[in-house]
Amino acid sequence: MQSSQRTLSEWRNRVAAEYRSAAVTAQAVHWMIQAGLPEHLVRVGLRIVADELDHATLSHDCLVALGGTDGAIPLEVSSMAAPVAPEGVLASLVDTIGSSFCLGETFAVPLFAAMRQHSTHPAARPVLDRVLQDEAAHRAFGWDTLDVLLELDGPGVRGRIEERLPVWLDAFARSYAMWSEAPPLEPAERAAGLLDGADYAAIHDRALAEDIGPRFARRGIAMPGADA
Ligand SMILES: [Fe+2]
Ligand SMILES: [Fe+2]
Questions:
Q1: Domain 5-218: which CATH class?
Q2: How far apart are CA 196 and CA 192, in angstroms?
């Protein structure tokens, strides 16, 4: 059966997002090496770059198996690297660990778990199994690296993250809100690993309240709107 346009465009977006994750992580690893962060964490970062490249390839294989074309997928090169912050490499690292890992990878765990839950399509399910298996380690890498950064400069790192959290959170909320306006999924779309918009929004809100907020709070970092 031919997959819906929505299914194909979602998997095309996933290929690009996974590839972008590889690039963003590679840049973080480079900054970690420049900043002399612990070698074991740098090595975890290198493994994550390889994981994300695998995720991109597996997602592309899935796209083709679902009936998508085997052609090149446009990538936005500017989104694959951030300029070094004027305050230096450590500050750049705080930004990328805070937004892409403490938020991005931490949201990813329950989102992929939900996508996998209803996914029965033989092309999609093994990809979601692999991605979900890796995402918990990617999330842990983010929070472990944040802890190292906090040991280096607790007040500076806390202040920088608290200052930037509203903008980072707004970007995530807007990207998930986009989904909630989409019409409900067909069973075949759910089987191919898509998630209903309302589920996206609910999982996002729950992850923020029950996981991300408490993790920041334990580290003395206040969420926007929370009493300091
Ligand atoms: Fe990934
Ligand atoms: Fe990841």
A1: mainly alpha
A2: 12
| C-alpha of residue 137 to centroid of ligand 2, in Å | 8
Tokens of 37: 């962060």
**Closest listed ligand to the CA of 15:** 1
Q: Which two tokens stand for residue 76?
A: 């936005």
Domain regions of the chain by residue span: 5-218
- Tokens 């019409």 label which residue? 183
- Is the whole model's pTM more than 0.70, yes or no? yes
pLDDT in tens, the chain (228 residues): 688 999 999 999 999 999 999 999 999 999 999 999 999 999 999 999 999 999 999 999 999 999 998 788 888 888 889 999 999 999 999 999 999 999 999 999 999 999 999 999 999 999 999 999 999 999 999 999 999 999 999 999 999 999 999 999 999 988 877 767 778 899 999 999 999 988 998 999 999 999 999 999 999 999 987 654
